Amino acid sequence: MARKRKLGKARDVRKAMLRGMVTHFLEKGKMKTTYKRAKEVSKEAEKIITIGKVNSLAAKRRVFSYVTKEDVTKKLFDEISPKYKETKGGYTSIVKLGPRRGDAAEMAILSLV
To answer: What is the percent of the chain where pLDDT is above 70?
Structure first.
């Protein structure tokens, strides 16, 4: 079983934060965040994109249960997932930027490939 990072948050808060971050990431296609959060968002976003490749009612319901905006779900099924139809994974890339000025947290840019 894969170990999940706690990110200094309680379970329900962490889950809500990741849902919001994945929704924002799929909406924009790119985001700047800490490296550890980027790794968790990447993991969840890849799962959602893989579900979106099926394009069935059951898949749409599963994505709706995780993604918080309807228009992002529509974009996922219409634009994002068809682009990766032949790809078996690796839809995202993480580029490290260096430490943040205030607290020296390692920053990264997460983007769709």
So the answer is: 98
